[in-house]
């Protein structure tokens, strides 16, 4: 599948690619950026009384852009630590209030590595806060000081909030990993962190909605919108992990091994005619390899498209010349439960197939439903 197709299906925009992993931004980030800019503008205008509109706007824009860069560095820190510990990132997703780093499979991954990888993001924001706090006195103009001051405290807020022990926050992932490391029970770790997530939601609702109402004031529109945008995904994730919805219960019963189709593994110089024979014999997917390296895949739909394009004699064409690159997000070692459901959902955005690897070997491929 082409990169552009992946972008269209995930409803996001790819900014650039780093180490083979696309860095994408959700369009909703622009909306939240405008909301933040709109709420920040009156404050900056008051602090910079006497300065022109262009200067005030520049300080606001620098602040919003700086928040985006802070979030990017946060996610890249996850990827860097994961890479060092043996698990490479395959996708970075950015939102103005946070992001998500998706990693490929690893045969020797341990829960404590998950904890370190998760906490790398908040640690980066904390470091940015410390650096910014130390440089505030060196700001050479009021507009620079205002923007730097805002970014400094935003990074502290990002560090503290993301370190809270509730899913899907970094602190929640770290808590789940530590519980699993100590008990050997992955589900228990996830449930403990999910309860923490619901506690975070209660805190958000109290701080931004209930407390103002009890004090006799109405929550301002920005605080209300921000509270909903932040609390909603936390509540939904925790609700799902705790199995409180029908979809979560269905995911808990999922076993990808019951859905797999046979996979034929062939070397790069195999002819297209031979690959066709493998598909005709019942293979759902042909996996093209060069030694231990996976070059790509070929399935019935791709073969039909190639034949419609009028290729020359199939016996003279090697599968390595026509196979489709297999994205890392289309490979999983998780066969059951919610992790398997999540892997299937991620694969659906980039591939028609999810390849299941068990004990270091390809055990089959699951159709994702993507076209």
Automatic annotation (TrEMBL):
Protein name in the entry: Peptidase M50
Record keywords, A-Z: Hydrolase, Membrane, Metal-binding, Metalloprotease, Protease, Transmembrane, Transmembrane helix, Zinc
Subcellular location: Membrane
Protein family per UniProt: Belongs to the peptidase M50B family.
Cofactor(s) named in the record: Zn(2+)
Superkingdom of the source species: Bacteria
InterPro entries, sorted: Peptidase_M50
One matching Pfam family: Peptidase_M50
Organism, scientific name: Actinomyces ruminis
Membrane topology (UniProt): Multi-pass membrane protein
Limits of the Peptidase M50 domain: 149-196
Transmembrane parts of this sequence: 12-36, 48-73, 188-209, 221-242
């Amino acid at each position: 599948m082409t990169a552009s197709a992946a972008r269209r299906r995930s409803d996001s925009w790819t900014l650039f690619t780093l180490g083979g992993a696309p860095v994408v931004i959700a369009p909703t980030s622009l909306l939240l950026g405008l909301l933040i800019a709109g709420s920040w503008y009156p404050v900056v205008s008051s602090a910079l009384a006497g300065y022109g509109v262009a200067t005030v706007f520049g300080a606001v824009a620098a602040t919003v852009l700086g928040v985006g860069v802070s979030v990017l560095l946060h996610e890249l820190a996850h990827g860097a630590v994961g890479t060092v510990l043996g698990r490479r990132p395959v996708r970075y997703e950015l939102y103005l209030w946070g992001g998500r780093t998706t990693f490929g499979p690893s045969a020797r991954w341990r829960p404590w590595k998950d904890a370190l990888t998760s906490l790398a993001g908040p640690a980066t924001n904390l470091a940015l806060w410390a650096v910014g706090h130390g440089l505030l006195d060196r700001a050479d103009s009021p507009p620079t000081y205002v923007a730097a001051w805002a970014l400094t405290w935003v990074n502290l807020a990002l560090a503290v909030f993301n370190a809270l022990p509730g899913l899907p926050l970094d602190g929640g992932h770290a808590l789940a990993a530590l519980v699993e490391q100590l008990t050997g029970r992955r589900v228990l770790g996830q449930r403990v962190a999910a309860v923490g997530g619901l506690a975070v939601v209660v805190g958000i609702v109290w701080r931004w909605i209930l407390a103002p109402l009890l004090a006799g004031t109405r929550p301002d529109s920005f605080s209300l919108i921000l509270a909903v945008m932040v609390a909603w995904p936390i509540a939904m994730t925790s609700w799902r992990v705790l199995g409180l919805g029908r979809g979560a219960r269905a995911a808990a019963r999922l076993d990808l091994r019951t859905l797999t189709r046979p996979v034929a593994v062939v070397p790069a110089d195999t002819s297209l005619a031979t690959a066709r024979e493998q598909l005709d014999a019942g293979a759902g997917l042909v996996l093209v390899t060069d030694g231990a390296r996976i070059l790509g895949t070929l399935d019935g739909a791709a073969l039909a498209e190639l034949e419609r394009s009028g290729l020359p004699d199939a016996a003279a064409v090697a599968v390595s010349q026509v196979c489709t690159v297999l994205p890392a997000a289309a490979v999983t070692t998780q066969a059951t439960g919610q992790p398997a459901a999540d892997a299937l959902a991620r694969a659906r955005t980039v591939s028609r197939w999810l390849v299941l690897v068990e004990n270091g070997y390809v055990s089959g491929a699951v159709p994702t439903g993507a076209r």
